[in-house]
Amino acid sequence: MIQDASTLHSMDQSNLNAPRTTSLPAAAKRQLAAAGVMLAIFLFAIDATIVSTAMPTIVAKLGGLELYSWVFSIYMLTSALTTPLFGKLSDLYSQRRLMLIGIGIFVLGSMLCGGAQSMEALILFRAIQGLGGGAIYALSFIVVGILYRPEERAKIQGIISGIWGVASILGPVAGGIIVEHWSWRWAFFVNLPITAVAVALIVVGLKESGQERRAHRLDFAGTFTLLAALMLLFYALSRSSHAAQSLNLAVLGIIALGIFFLMVFYVIERRAAEPIVPLDLFKSSLFTTSAVVGTLASMGVFGAISYLPLYLQGVTGLTASRAGMVLLFLSVAWTAGSLIAGQALNRVGYRASATAGMILLALGYSLFVAFKSNLSVVWVAVSGTLIGTGMGMVNLTTLVAVQNSVSHHRIGVATSTLMLFRTFGGAFAVSLMGTVLLHQMQRGLNQLSRGSLSAALLDKLTHPQNLLEPATRAQIPSSILPRLIAILADAIWYSFLTGFALMLLGVAASFFMSKDTPAKMAPRRQSAD
């Protein structure tokens, strides 16, 4: 989801270009409203990454390493599903009012997250935060289309794109500094004063639009069946890491129920007047291959963002702030990769650009595989640079390919569908890699506990998050600590091996993309329009 600012111009193209019956707001008020929208977008973007470096500390304080992946996954799922819904609601109701409601939900979620007393509560409150975040994401881009004329939008879109880049860079660093010098709770409470300023600017500057309201049939049934299916499948992954047998009857039952909901979702989408996932889009081979490659790339980058801090803090012993500095390489490289693809795409075509990006992602993961559990901080930075550059290239390439695979009036729905798949892919990878990590951790701890260990020490070892808390880590005997760190490192290695396999699938899938360039496709698209 981070660095997806390029999608904003296509979020709801019909809404952005709708005729206006009232004049534009006064210049000063328009600037105030735009500033408020930018602040809101900044908050949504930074919350996708600020938690990454804070999570090891959060797990050390609250416990529940087995729920680590859910803090990321639930935020991504709920925000992805509410984005298209609020985009359509903006055609029915006041964008200003909906924007304020979205910010209100986001603030409520942030407050609750900051006050969470358990990992289960934090996950629930992150879901609420994601609901508000999805509203902010959709409505910010729509409001920009209302505030600015078509010829002015490119400039403001460029500014917002820059905000995404800054947020993705600042997020990990800010998260590390906050947990190191204050409390992890301020990673969420810091949203409150900024949102207060954003709300004030929007209330003063944003006036109601006089544009015509268009009726929509909201696909609530499709949205909730898809959410239920994904939640069940992710929960099955989580359960399988703790079961004596990975696929016991309980896990198989949950998987079967998840598949059932997916089948119901498919039936609903075939009949829905305005489905959340229009199935006819997949008749285009360019759209289908782009969605697959984009989804696999998102798996790679979100897996890295989620588990690199765990490796840096739990294995190499870096502080949270220094771990955030290492993640800077990934964030900056992501922006650089987008710029590279933007310059090269019309010369080399979709396939070459996407394949190059996926190869870089695979190379980034291969460093973990090659070095086993002995990857130094320098090589982690190199790995992050390769992963970030590859994601930037694939991100832009698949976005442009998807938008060029459909007629002009369907750009919005095609883009939002791609965004859904990217987000679901990222959430799935975080959950899958977390399941592998926990399974390997449990195996290693079981072997370690067979020795002659005291009951008190054995209790500490059954909670591997103690490795992430310096005070508790210091209490572990020096004869045991290296072995415990090795178990964590080995478990993370297996999770990155899983990610590497997914990246190889992405490389293979990229070979099926079209060799066309955007320039070559332009005449065909114009004739289709």
Characterization of this structure:
The model is unreliable at 5-25 (pLDDT under 50). It contains 19 helices and no strands. The two termini are 29 Å apart. It has 529 residues and is mostly helical. It has 3 domains: 1-213, Up-down Bundle (Growth Hormone, Chain: A), CATH 1.20.1250.20; 218-272; 282-522, Growth Hormone, Chain: A, CATH 1.20.1250.20. α4 (68-89) packs parallel to α6, α12 (285-314) crosses α13 (320-370) and α15 (411-448) runs antiparallel to α18 (481-510).
Keywords:
3 domains; Growth Hormone, Chain: A; 529 residues; globular; mainly alpha; single chain
Layout of helices and strands:
Blueprint: H1 13-16, H2 27-46, H3 50-62, H4 68-89, H5 95-114, H6 119-147, H7 150-181, H8 186-189, H9 191-205, H10 220-240, H11 249-271, H12 285-314, H13 320-370, H14 377-404, H15 411-448, H16 455-461, H17 470-475, H18 481-510, H19 518-528
Helix pairs in contact: 2-6, 2-7, 2-9, 3-7, 3-12, 3-13, 4-6, 4-10, 4-15, 5-6, 5-9, 7-13, 10-11, 10-15, 12-13, 12-14, 12-15, 12-18, 13-14, 13-18, 14-15, 15-18
**How many structurally independent domains?**
3
CATH superfamily descriptor of the largest domain: MFS general substrate transporter like domains
- Strands, count: 0
Q: What is the residue-averaged pLDDT?
A: 77
Shape: globular
User: Can you tell me the CATH class of the largest domain?
Assistant: Mainly Alpha
Short description:
With 529 residues, the protein is mostly helical.
